[in-house]
Amino acid sequence: FRINPKGLYKHGMAMFGELLAAKPNLAHRMLAILEKKGLLKAVITQNIDGLHQKAGSKNVFEIHGHLRTGTCMGCGRKYKMEEIMKRLKEGELPPRCDDCKKVIKPDIVLFGNNLPPEEYGKSLDAARKCDLMLVLGSSLVVAPASDLPAVALGSGALHRPVQGGAKLIIMNKMVTGYDREAEVVIHESLGKTAETILKELESRFRII
After folding, report:
1. Pair 58, 28: CB distance under 8 Å
2. Which fold has domain 25-63+130-205?
3. One of 11, 64, 66, 187 is an active-site residue; which one?
4. Cα 52 from chain centroid?
């Protein structure tokens, strides 16, 4: 990004617009309901679209950042993404800071960037303390986020659960490297899975 900031904005502008306009799906709403009812402590996400918050989730750790704001790479001034998109549409490529004229970078983790330390620290703490971890729609191959199930299991790098570690439920279309350690594995679309779970929660516990 430092070498070619125009590239990200030129090729990512349409994607940014689509993500900002996207609406939460059943899976997002399911997690928000579980949190509201006190059955879910936190959501850890690699997505940058902010859909968990749009669905109503409160305790969300965005370890790959988000598209709500951008930051000047010179002075650190914050800009709302709506302002950045407005400038892009007006032909300002790349958008620059009003104060120091340096490039504004979206607050997302790009290749080679470190994860936001506060967000990842909270994620590690949540993984260590949880008694059950749900993995939704992740292949669990992108490190270091892929290490979080091992942290929850109390198993370190070898994925071997220890007594007292959390239980693991995986909902993903494809096989993951943690399937053998999980209590439950569902290889189905998240939409169908979330719909089924929401119906069960309503019929059995009337929590919706």
Report:
1. no
2. Rossmann fold (3.40.50)
3. 64
4. 8
Is residue 82 within 8 Å of residue 50, measured between CB atoms? no
Q: Which residue has the tokens 């971890």?
A: 133
Tell me, rounded to whole angstroms, the distance of Cα 51 from its chain centroid.
9
The residue type found at 200 is: E
Asked if 161 contacts 181 with a C-beta cutoff of 8 angstroms, the reply is: yes
Rounded Cα distance, 63 and 66, in Å: 9
Domain edges within the chain: 25-63+130-205
Residues 70/78, Cβ–Cβ less than 8 Å? yes
159 tagged catalytic: no
Q: Kindly state the tokens that stand for 64.
A: 């790959």
pTM of the model: 0.89
Q: What is the pLDDT of residues 67-97, one digit of tens each?
A: 999 999 999 999 999 999 999 999 999 999 9
Residues contacting 201, CB < 8 A, separation 6+: 33, 207, 208
Report how far residue 143's alpha carbon sits from residue 131's, in angstroms, rounded to the nearest whole number: 22
Helix (H) or strand (E) holding 65, with range, is strand 65-72
Q: What is the pLDDT of residues 136-166, one digit of tens each?
A: 999 999 888 999 999 999 865 444 445 558 9
